[in-house]
Design brief:
This protein is α+β, with helices and mostly antiparallel strands. It is built from 2 helices and 8 strands. The chain has an 8-stranded antiparallel beta barrel. The longest helix has 30 residues. It is rod-shaped, with a radius of gyration of 58 Å.
């Protein structure tokens, strides 16, 4: 502005500069270099360098470590819970059935249990009956008014005793299937199913009480 042709502008510029000889050279045509906060010119020698930012040493920029949620062993849906409950019920049923089989097999015997031990008597329309059932033996005895014979155990538990009656006189009595069951502590029911190969005998039952 000091070299402008207008003297008025030259005078104003000189006054602003305070009479200082610092004027731009006559051939200066380009813009003045930028000045910094201290008032000195700063040369633009390259792109502006930004200060480095802190980086996490274990995790590169742009990548994050996924957070794993704890696994749940139970299903999240109602259907899954129903399936799980059904499987648990099936396991309980299978376990109960297996336990029942084991207990049932261990509870069966071919000897007379202690609960049937003793002599039992009863009266029916076809006569008097006496059964002798010794504990822990494989055979007992049965007497009626018309025949007698042995009772051989085929299956026994504490509450049921199944036997086969073999008469001594086969021309008088048929072989029988005789089943004893407990009605109370000292009363038995004797159910008789006679074979019909020789003489016809209908099925019958006798209530028997322990003697002695």
């Amino acid at each position: 502005m000091a070299d402008d042709d207008s003297r008025t502008v030259v005078a104003a510029a000189t006054a602003v500069l305070g009479g200082s000889p610092r004027t731009a050279p006559p051939d200066a045509t380009g813009p003045a270099p930028p000045t910094g906060p201290s008032g000195t010119a700063e040369a633009a020698t390259g792109p502006i360098q930004r200060p480095p930012t802190a980086k996490t040493p274990d995790h590169p920029r742009g990548r994050t470590t996924p957070t794993r949620s704890p696994r749940r062993w139970w299903p999240a849906t109602t259907r899954g819970r129903v399936i799980l409950a059904a499987l648990a019920a099936a396991a309980l049923l299978l376990g109960g059935a297996a336990t029942w089989r084991v207990l049932d097999q261990t509870g069966h015997s071919t000897n007379i249990p202690a609960s049937f031990d003793g002599q039992w008597t009863g009266i029916a329309a076809n006569g008097n009956f006496t059964a002798e059932l010794p504990e822990d033996l494989h055979q007992g005895h049965l007497r009626t008014d018309v025949c007698k014979g042995t009772l051989t155990v085929s299956d026994a538990t504490d509450s049921r005793l199944e036997t086969r009656f073999a008469p001594v006189e086969t021309d008088v009595c048929n072989p029988w299937t005789v089943v004893f069951t407990h009605l109370s502590g000292s009363v038995l029911k004797m159910a008789v199913d006679p074979d019909s190969s020789v003489n016809y005998w209908p099925e019958f039952e006798v209530k028997m009480t322990r003697q002695g």
